[in-house]
Design brief:
- The protein is mainly alpha-helical and about 550 residues long.
- The chain is about 45% helix and about 5% strand.
- The strands form 4 sheets. A 3-stranded antiparallel sheet has the order 7-8-9, with no helix packed on it. The chain has a two-stranded antiparallel ribbon with strand order 1-2. The protein has a two-stranded antiparallel ribbon with strand order 3-4.
- A hairpin with a 4-residue loop joins strand 7 and strand 8.
- Helix 9 crosses helix 11 and helix 13 runs parallel beside helix 17.
Length: about 550
């Protein structure tokens, strides 16, 4: 129930947002649309006046006229209407229900969508009586193939935005029709001051596999959307803390929200950092929840006993997360004494990376069966690009004519292998999504209709790759460090590494070069390390001879 868009009466409205009386007033075709002579609104008119002004003239005549039943004296009261007394729809008279438009599949001429119209003016609009009522949306009330869209200014604006978005992002006809149907379903009865909650139509659109993201984009631009969906981080955190003691879970939840959203004098951490910290402390908290009910009961011996169960890098990471948790608890007065104080954990030395064998690289190449998988592997194995750099690579960063590519702000030559794989992917991209406006190089069926980068899940679906992209990147930089004889300045110049990282790769290479078996790639015969002056390109680095262009074709 809401107010009628024509007479402003509050009550039952139908597909076009009008009450029964207003629907019958304009359905017979005898009342053309124009500017009312009294209220100057653009409405269906009877003798140059809208139905609301006629109703108000009747009220004025009943108060001031000597003979209220005389219809001849009603005309003088119409130009004098300066205000409207609001009322409830269909309060005194019973009317036949309006004609229901034909459902989908009904035969009839194809009608064009409603033309773009601006929003209704806020002055002179009745406010919604009940704002907390839940709405029920359903399909099948209006078929745009045979029935014109309802005469609603908000819906006309939404359809205009839908057409503009479809042209800009290259929507297919099916996607465009589905978006228009969804907007008609949501905004057919929309009035000024009303809002649309995501929770009310989320399940309806999900059940029909419709474009939920595009509907949310249009409603957000209109300013009528209320996104009341539960926060993903809060939902995930609630599941992870469900098995903890209530007292411990409440304090850990406060600490996790502080990590995620920040606080006074504490900036928010990255989402993956907050998730990693909760994952790190959860095993210890599960163990302590079986004995304790609060964090203040945890002692130094409990922390040491849990650290004895882990080794290596994991031991150091768990200690970092426990220090963060108990450090926050001590500063906020949750505990009296920090059980992690004066516990020193020596950080393990960095591992000595070994070069990938030819069998491992061959397995990677066999798994790369799609154009986008080949491109990701080449960018990681030849240009040492991280996953985030590949994800953020844009079309403007690729210059095929001049054989140049920019990765993480560093421009480098485009070798023949990368050039061929990149052309193969761009050809596939153009054939698969010819009208897309996405500026990123890597796209999929979800991001082709938008202007955002692919999600991290895109890289997890590249296929069964024994050596991940990060391992290929490390192997590429390690191969360069061995080729140049462990020169950190060379590593920093070629890959733009920071000084500690360049020194770490140089040290790793020198330790491998100190052994006779390290000069050859595992699985091949030992060979002499090439001289840096003869084999190193000052911009691209040494060529990966084991990753020839013929292997990826």
């Amino acid at each position: 129930m809401t107010s009628c868009v024509e007479c402003l009466a509050w009550g039952l409205t139908y597909a076009q947002g009008v009450c029964t009386a207003c629907y019958n007033f304009s359905a017979d075709g005898r009342h053309p649309v124009g500017d009312c002579g009294a209220c100057h609104r653009r409405m269906p008119l009877k003798d140059d006046y809208c139905r609301l002004c006629w109703c108000q003239a009747v009220e004025d005549r009943a108060v001031t006229a000597d003979n209220p039943r005389d219809k001849a004296v009603l005309a003088p009261y119409l130009p004098q209407v300066r205000y409207h007394q609001l009322f409830l729809a269909d309060l005194y008279h019973r009317h036949k229900p309006p004609h229901i438009p034909a459902r989908r599949g009904a035969k009839g001429p194809r009608l064009e969508p409603a033309a773009f119209a601006s929003r209704l003016r806020p002055d002179g609009v009745q406010l919604i009586m009940f704002t907390d009522l839940l709405r029920t949306y359903r399909y099948g009330t209006i078929d745009l193939r045979s029935v014109a869209p309802p005469n609603n200014s908000w819906l006309s604006w939404a359809l205009h935005l839908s057409e503009a978005m479809s042209e800009t992002h290259g929507f297919s006809p099916a996607t465009r029709r589905a978006l228009n149907r969804n907007l008609v379903m949501l905004l057919a009865n929309h009035v000024d001051g009303d809002t649309v909650r995501v929770s009310e139509f989320h399940d309806v659109l999900r059940g029909r596999k419709a474009g939920l993201v595009h509907v949310i984009d249009v409603l957000s631009r209109m300013g009528v959307l209320v996104d009341d969906r539960p926060n993903v981080f809060d939902t995930w955190l609630e599941t992870k803390l469900a098995d903890l003691a209530p007292g411990i879970a409440a304090q850990v939840e406060r600490w996790a929200h502080l990590l995620r959203h920040g606080g006074p004098r504490r900036p928010p951490r990255r989402p993956h950092t907050a998730l990693g910290y909760v994952y790190g402390v959860r095993p210890a908290l599960l163990e302590w929840s079986s004995r304790y009910q609060h964090l203040r009961e945890v002692t130094r011996d409990d922390v040491l006993a849990h650290l004895d169960t882990v080794r290596g890098n994991q031991r150091h990471l768990i200690m970092v997360t426990l220090r963060s948790l108990f450090g926050w608890a001590k500063r906020d007065g949750v505990i009296f004494r920090n059980p992690c104080a004066r516990i020193r954990i020596t950080k393990p030395p960095p591992p000595i990376w070994q070069r990938l064998s030819r069998e491992e690289i061959a397995a990677v190449l066999e798994a790369a069966t799609t154009p986008h998988a080949k491109l990701c592997i080449v960018l990681a194995a030849v240009h040492a690009a991280r996953r985030g750099h590949i994800q953020a690579l844009r079309l403007d960063d690729v210059d095929l004519g001049n054989r140049r590519i920019s990765i993480d702000g560093r421009t480098r030559p485009l070798d023949e292998l990368t050039h061929q794989v990149l052309i193969e992917w761009l050809d596939h991209r153009r054939r698969r999504w010819p009208n897309t406006a996405n500026p990123y190089v890597l796209i999929n069926k979800s991001t082709a209709l938008r202007t955002v980068a692919v999600s991290p899940n895109f890289f997890r679906r590249l296929g069964v790759v024994p050596a991940k992209l990060e391992r290929l990147r490390i192997d590429r930089q390690l191969d360069e460090a061995i080729t140049c004889g462990g020169d950190p300045l060379h590593m920093a110049a070629v890959f733009g590494l920071a000084e500690p990282t360049a020194i770490r790769y140089a040290t790793n290479a020198q330790q491998l070069l100190a052994h006779d078996h390290a000069t050859a790639r595992p699985g091949s015969l030992p060979t002499q390390v090439p001289t840096p002056q003869n084999e190193v390109d000052p911009h691209l680095g040494s060529t990966r001879k084991h990753l020839g262009s013929n292997e990826l074709r």
